Known about the structure:
Helix content: 40-55%
Order of helices and strands: HHEHEEHEHEHEHEHEHHHEE
Number of helices: 11
Structural class: alpha/beta
Distance between the termini: 30 Å
Strand order of the largest sheet: 5-4-6-7-8-9-10
Strand content: 5-15%
Radius of gyration: 20 Å
Amino acid sequence: MAFPGQACVRGIDVGAKFAKEKFGIDMEVIHADTQSRPENGRIAAENLIRQGCTVLIGAWDSGATISALQAAEAAKIPMVVHIATATQVTSQGFTQVFRYCPTSLTIVRKSLIELKSLLSPLKDVPTSAVVMHLNNTMGQSTAASIDRAWKEVDVPLKIAQYIPYDEKARDLSVEVAKAKASGADALISVTRVNDAIMIIRECVKQGWNPKLIFSPNSNGVQDKAYYDALGKYGDGAILSTLWYNPKAPDAAAILKRFASDYPNDWVDANSGCAFEAVQIVVDAVSRAGSSESAAIHAALKATDMTPILMSSGRIKFDADGQNMGGDVTMLQGQNGKPRVVAPQAVAEAVLQFPLAPFNAR
């Protein structure tokens, strides 16, 4: 989980600088690394709380977030969750949670509606799909969401098989062979960055050329590391995620700051949502006029703000701490970078379909 974790650090650090310059709120940021272990979420949170942190931001991983929320709940420290899409984050009765990102079910449902819309005017569309997914909290939650939303949205593809795999796997040749053998002509994947790269490499190696590769609620297509590793094989896959709004009033200045501070990286969903989480905290602190946890918590409950960077509706939290204004953007890898292909209102490129065969690139 190092790649998305580092992206979140970038987003938080740039977010803190922006907040100081724009709103005059000076935050001391202390980072804690959960080392890709969900159980370390609570340990990291307890350590931060001991150091005097009065509000937490994180974690990226759903398992680590749920673990950290246990410590936040015990200490009555509000926690603004920027990603961590597993339904359990806001369905277990935590009172200190405020999640910006939609639940996995919401993301998947919105994503499948957009996918169905994209495919409807096309010819020779896939007829069946295989779902490869991580066998962890996020992967299981998303796979369950796919199973439910697929029927609700009535996607015109039959799901041939679900193929789970361990998040620490270093070889996915067997799983890709199963996917190929299923006879499916579309791949639906739920991935981190490393396994997204492994899956494409195995498709190339095994000569499997699905017409469509689509990842709802995943990493891969949005990440620079994906294209650095795959080169020309990184193009063509589609991913749904939260994405930044290039037309936001401060977007140009924020993107310029990112480019200045991190010239070898780009803003993605992880860094963008982390940046937005800082602005949510700053808005609450500003309205509360206090850095005390109880005051911040009360202000967070009353949040009603337009996102500073991200493309979504107004940020408001329901009784469970879930933001009600979240939305998704569809990206496709084109010419070595993610390009927005839907919704139409924000699209910057036209969907390329079918997927160019790997052996013809």
